[in-house]
Amino acid sequence: MCGIVGLYLKNDKYESKLGELFEPMLIAMTDRGPDSAGFAIYGDDVSEDWVKLTLRHPSDTFNWAGFTDQLATALACEADWMQNSNVAVLKVKAAESTVREWITANAEGVLVLSAGQSIEILKEVGLPENIASKFNLSGMKGSHIIGHTRMATESAVTMEGSHPFSTGSDLCLVHNGSLSNHNRLRDKLKREGITFETENDSEVAAGYLTWRLNNGDTLKGALENALKDLDGFFTFTIGTKDGFAVMRDPIACKPAVLAETEDYVAMASEYQALASLPGIENAKVWEPEPATFYIWERK
């Protein structure tokens, strides 16, 4: 059992308060997932000739300044960074593949959690309240955010096994449920060039969407194909640079509720996680239909 939550802003009214609005939503899912928690937030975009990466090191005292200076010198590029606990958001004027190659070769212990122009992923083992406090979630700004609280049932309680999972540029996914065909799909996706960091079935779902998008699908097309190719029980919430989506499997045994106002769309495993949102008493509230996906995108 896990908890998933998401908040997508339809305008800029609440962008400066996105983290403040989202924190109680994440904490409300503690009973569904006390083992670990995480979130992906979108905002503070870099231009197309830059890449933004979220990097993690086990130590809070890792020398991110020295790391960034070495990278910028080696790649002869501009770079900037901001530390948040044991995580750093690194902005580099270089190709993502080049930056990743340098990190792999020169920065032992540094793990790439996400990459793109907008996304930042922060996650750790522990209670959702502690994770929110560790990363100062309430002070964050942005356009949309999705989160997850995990109760491990099929694998160990680790940071690597926590959600969200990101397997492509500005793409991430959180999942409540389990996939029955993830081993076969993982092998297929590896042959197609998708890489995985864990044995978690949810990472396979994220990898599948990356593969479909890389092959020219729109988000709508990728989700249509996912309904055909993914077997098991699932409620997904998906984040992209410009969009936010929710999808349920044909049986729809994993709970989900959506709420929409003129200012936002919110999703949660339980309504209680939405109760603190402004204007929720006047929102359109409904349960997502089985074998159906819902997409909101900025044009």
Could you outline the blueprint of secondary structure elements for this entry?
Layout: E1 2-9, H1 18-27, E2 36-42, E3 51-56, H2 64-75, E4 79-84, E5 87-92, H3 96-106, E6 111-116, E7 119-125, H4 128-134, E8 144-150, E9 165-168, E10 171-179, H5 182-191, H6 201-214, H7 219-229, E11 232-239, E12 243-248, E13 257-260, E14 264-268, E15 284-286, E16 293-297
Antiparallel strand pairs: 1-8, 1-14, 2-7, 2-8, 3-5, 3-6, 4-5, 9-10, 10-11, 11-12, 12-16, 13-14, 13-15
Helix pairs in contact: 5-6, 6-7
Structure description:
By secondary structure, the chain is of the alpha+beta class. The chain folds into two domains: 2-44 and 124-297, Glutamine Phosphoribosylpyrophosphate, subunit 1, domain 1, CATH 3.60.20; 46-117, ACT domain (Alpha-Beta Plaits, 2-Layer Sandwich). Helix content is 25%, strand content 32%. The chain has a seven-stranded antiparallel β-sheet with strand order 7-2-8-1-14-13-15, covered by helices on one side. Strand 13 and strand 14 (264-268) form a beta hairpin. Helix 5 (182-191) runs parallel beside helix 6 (201-214) and helix 6 crosses helix 7 (219-229). The two termini are 35 Å apart. The model has no long low-confidence stretch (mean pLDDT 95). It comes from Rhodanobacter aciditrophus.
Briefly say what this structure is.
With 299 residues, this protein is an alpha+beta fold. The chain is built from 7 helices and 16 strands.
